[in-house]
Each structure stands twice: as C-alpha cells, then as structure tokens.
Amino acid sequence: MSAVMDKVEKGTGFKILGADDVLYGPVELPTLVDWVRDQRVLPETWVYSEAVDAWHKARQTPELQMFFRSKPGAARGPGASAAKPGASELHVGALRRVKIFAELSEDQLTAMLKFVQVLPVRQWTEICKQGDPGDAMFLILDGEVRVRLMIGGKETILTTLGAGEFFGEISLFDDGPRSADIVANKDGMLLKIKVDDFRGLATEHPNLATPLLLAIGKTLTSRIRADNKRYRDTISFARAAGGPAAS
User: Fold this and answer.
1) Taking the CB of residue 37, how many other CB atoms lie within 10 A of it?
2) How far apart are CA 25 and CA 168, in angstroms?
3) Distance of alpha carbon 161 from alpha carbon 132, whole angstroms
4) What is the pLDDT of residues 205-220, one digit of tens each?
5) Domains in the chain with CATH codes
6) pLDDT reading at 158 higher than 50
7) Confidence bin at 128 (pLDDT 50/70/90)
8) How far apart are CA 100 and CA 215, in angstroms?
9) For residue 177, what is the DSSP state?
C-alpha cells in the first residue's frame, strides 16, 4: 500500500487513495457517497475513515457496503461479467479517470457517454488475442492489464498498463489484426469504444473526436519515444559489452 496512507491526520471525515496514487479528501460521508455513485470510488478503492483511524477497501467500509452488494443474477464465472452495464449507468465523473479525457469539457464528456460501453473484467481474462480482428479500443477505468506476445510457447511481456491508460487504439485507424494479447492482471473495469461507434462520434461530434484523437496521438508519441530510448539503450549496452548487436 502506498506510503501516503501513513501521512494522514485523524479527523471525522474520509480520505480516498485514487487510482493515480493521489490522496483525496477529507470529505464527509454525503460527498463520499456521491463519488461512489459517480464511479469515482470503486469497490477496490482504498478509503480511510478518520473516525476509526483505519484503511479499508470501499466494499469493506461499513458506511459504503450497501452500494457494493452483488445484484441478483450477476455473473459469477470466469472472464468478463455477463451483465455489462451500459453507458446509462456510467457517470461523467468516472470518465475523468481516463487521461485522454482530461482536457474535455463537461458537455463533451456527457456526449461521450453515448459512444462507450462499460466492460467489467475478471483477473486473467484475455481481453484481446493476437491475430484477431481489431474492432474496438479500450480505456482502463480501474485495474491493470499486461500486453504480451507468446513466442515459442513462452510469454514475453511488452508493457503493463494501469488505470487511466488505453489500448487497442490502432483499430480506430485500420482494419488490421491485433498485434499482441491483452490480459487482465487483476479484476477491473474498462470502457470499450467500438470502431463503428467511433466513426459515428467523428460524424456527429467532430469537435469531440478531434481533441480525443490529438490526445491519443500525444500518448502514442510518448510511447514511441520511450520505445526508441529502450532500443538505443539496448544497442549501447550490447556494443559496450561487445555482444552480437555491436556490429
């Protein structure tokens, strides 16, 4: 657990450790309940109660347990939950956890709700499989995934992505196959934007699609720069060691 949990002062409210490892609060119970309803606080979010001087997951916090009780008919098997909440159950506050939405206005985020689908995933779910057609991109509201390649029957992890990040964005630009597997490292919540829905978004709300594409482009540029640096460092190390890459 983050060391920030050890730096709180006692009081009467609640404090929340966000997915970005930032401490929020203190807030009173009504505000905390609003955050739960807006999906800013999820079942696995850490909540500090100043009254009892203790941290608990939100689903274990007595004042919040009623909001996280399992609904009748909820899926219990492995993989993605059978009951996938629609956009009508998603709130603007939840979208603000995604980095590429950071610069969008309240009205733009509200319009965005029409074009996304909420997808709960269980740990070890294979969300995307290398070689399958790319028909959607995904944004991580909560949880963690790994991007992997299976080479000679062994797993090679390319990167790990957490809350606020996205994957599968290439499908928005071409109809090619998935370039890697995406596997959930833990239970989580994703947003899914289908390619057809994104094209509808671009037609109906170009003022929304444009900043969204720019934000995706900035993130991809940052990833490419990081990959290039890793490649340069690998070559430099190999040359210094006189390895095969030195020639």
Assistant:
1) 12
2) 34
3) 20
4) 998 999 889 988 988 8
5) 3-67 (3.30.1490), 87-231 (2.60.120.10)
6) yes
7) very high
8) 5
9) B
